[in-house]
Amino acid sequence: MFRNSYDNDSVTFSPQGRIFQVEYAxxxxxxxxxxxxxxxxxxxxxxxxxxxxxELGSYQKKIIGIDSxxxxxxxxxxxDARVLSNFMRQQAxxxxxxxxxxxxxxxxxxxxxxxxxxxxxxxxxxxxxxxxLVAGVDKAGPHLWEFQPSGMxxxxxxxAIGARSQSARTYLERNFEEFENVDKDELIKHGLQALRDSxxxxxxLTSANTSIAVVGVGEDFVLYDGDSVQVxxxxxxxxxxxxxRAEEEPxxxxxxxxxxxxxxxxxxxxxxxxxxxxxxxxPAGPLDxxxxxxxxxx
Amino acid sequence: MNHFPEGWGRPRDDVYGxxxxxxxxxxxxxxxxxxxxxxxxxxxTSVIAVKYKDGVVIAADxxxxxxxxxxxxxxxxxxxxxxxxxxxxGGDMSDMQYIFDDVLERLMIKESYSPxxxxxxxxxxxxxxxxxxxYARRSRxxxxxxxxxxxxxxxxxxxxxxxxxxxxxxxDGPALATGFGAHLALPLLxxxxxxxxxxxxxxxxxxxxxxxxxxxxxFYRDARSIDEYSIAWVTPQGVEQSREKLENQSWKFAERxxxxxxQTN
Amino acid sequence: xxxxxxxxxxxxxxxSPDGRNFQVEYAxxxxxxGGTSIGLRVKDGVILAVEKLVTSKLLVPxxxxxxxxxxxxxxxxxxxxxxxxxxxxxxxxxxxxxxxxTYESPISVSTLADRMGGxxxxxxxxxxxxxxxxxxxxxGVDENGPQLYMIEPSGSYWGYHGAATGKGRQAAKSEIExxxxxxxxxxxxxxxxxxxxAVAHEDSKxxxxxxxxxxxxxxxxxxxxxxxxKELVEEAEKWAKKEIEGDDDxxxxxMEE
Lengths: 298, 265, 257
Prior knowledge:
- The structure holds 3 protein chains of 3 kinds.
- By secondary structure, chain A is α+β, with helices and mostly antiparallel strands.
- Chain A has 8 helices and 10 strands.
- Chain A has a single domain (about 20-250), classed as Aminohydrolase, N-terminal nucleophile (Ntn) domain (Glutamine Phosphoribosylpyrophosphate, subunit 1, domain 1, 4-Layer Sandwich).
- Chain A has helices at about 20-30, 80-100, 105-120, 165-180, 185-195, 230-235, 240-250, 260-270, and strands at about 35-40, 45-50, 65, 70-75, 130-140, 140-145, 155, 160, 210-215, 220-225.
- Chain A starts with 19 loop residues before the first helix and ends in a 28-residue tail after the last helix.
- The mean pLDDT of chain B is about 90.
- The radius of gyration of chain B is 20 Å and the shape is globular.
- Chain B has one domain: 4-Layer Sandwich (Glutamine Phosphoribosylpyrophosphate, subunit 1, domain 1), CATH 3.60.20.10.
- Chain B has helices at about 15, 20-25, 95-110, 125-140, 180-185, 185-190, 195-200, 205-220; strands at about 40-45, 45-50, 55-60, 65, 70, 80, 85-90, 145-155, 160-165, 170, 175, 230-235, 240-245.
- In chain B, the strands form 2 sheets. In chain B, strands 1, 4, 5, 6, 7, 8, 9 and 10 form an 8-stranded antiparallel β-sheet that branches. Chain B has a 5-stranded antiparallel β-sheet with strand order 11-2-3-12-13.
- At the A-C interface, α3 and α4 of A face α1 and α2 of C.
């Protein structure tokens, strides 16, 4: 039933010093739909792909506002994210009540990191099964942090988590140098372009399945959901992934990378209702700094 | 008058009569009845402060009295918190030491754990923190017997000055004073800065002069004061602090005053 | 590890027939995979440095600090599971704070090391927890001058003049042994620290790394544990690079002879 005798709980090290239960928790993130975050000098943006369990059902919330100066996007177990977001709201409110000061993004991210770590060291607990992107603005400007169930938190200029997020990450890695100096609209567009690249072959961004949030220096956190997303999709223009476009219109100039082609095959097999099952993972090395111990299935 | 720390926050005995605590004695000892501080022991007197164009000047003398005895003559009642905030305290000196050496030290150490200071700790934050602390303590009927002034700047580098007392009462203004100073010094300081706008046209020298004059009056008139005081100037650039001694004292007027000392008639 | 798979390594707090606690040994494996950390105790203070492996170019440079302060006068650097290290640091801060509550003075570094050694040890005692996957180096100054300690997952700790842990610890140790630590000043030692981390990184040269360095000096930093100023770090890195290239040249020359 178990892959080996060291993966039953989070209080057992493998002979290589790995904690499999924590690594499996990281896999739970990849079961969730993709979320992308990115920052410029003045703004931080979150975009995410929502999923509905059935056609007539509503879409699962992917972006949650925490305080007027920051919010999160999630991938993985939504109930776990709700526990963490409630905790962050408490932290944020207590900062305002006790100090009359909006909490620094790093401080609130560290607080959930510490909470998550405890779950990886005590028997009878399980690690959180959710990854978060925390985007916000404080006195030092815009920030984007990634949180992982291992308790690892890292600050990024751009990050993507969830199913097929590798494609979005590839986009970010190719374009992040531009982000710094673009305006709000342009930054959101970059975010949507990254998210678009992570779409399954038969999907496209719609006002129903896309969430956008933005926060800036002197601008409160704003969440665009439903109809209000359409404006941004119109600005984006093309709402299908570059892969699909490449297939349908072979003449398109946009290049198809080798890695994305590989994904297309695996995703095609997985089918749309179970999307993400075999998708690529999040960034390597949550626990081990070398990033070598990770079970990277990409 | 309600200017001595023992009287702070109490219904005045001369108006309402002494508090009748007889019903308390009916409570069985150990039945969960608890009595906390009823009065301060070693006390410090007034703290006064004035806002000016680009900062705040704040002063407090260095005496800690034991009743009417001038018990400790060199007690620092101004505390620099971080780089740009000064807290001044009157009232119970052991409670002040708890606030200065324990509460505020911890606060500063915690703050130093984020050296990148994504949101620096400024005077309004220190003030909010202290006001929450004092209010929480009084709500537990176990007050920290102090009156505090917090001087510094807000995030737009505008001078900040506010007060909180043992009841958790908070207010701010261009000139503030606690204790005896609230009665005797404040009217003098308000001549210089009657309102917020006025303080924006006051120079450091003018503000300093007013504070020094007020400290002099307080020394002559407040029997719980001493002729040495600490004075500090807070600007966005930082804190400058010095010790002053009242020179050229003249007690000639005392000769004509009768009714105290050996001459009782 | 001959006893792997015999069942004695599946739970913490269990001895094998030959008297080993395997889970603690496995925790040390996690340490050996982490980026190299070092601590140098010199004449006028202590330096802590760490090799931060850059896992993505999207990471914000200079953010994501790995060396943390405890009270004002001490710092902790660690190799291994980073979240474990964070928790360890937070416990150390609580210890320092509780000491202050009682004595109204900073905790001595040796007491801090002792308390944290005890804390780590407690996580080897019960099957309901796992040991810390980190080795921590604690440096600071107190009434006895500069102090340096290293705490292992087992909870054992020793005082050091120079300490190294993590992936490149062997290379780092042999570099440290070349130094006359008792005679070095902080200003000189930051250069050596930069070199030691660079040398320790040689084995994983294909990956980029970022050097993070803090210090606490009696005079230099007024007894406070703070990051080494950026200009000084850059200068030290430059010196280290030159120095390493020089060493290589010498070796090449010898080879030619």
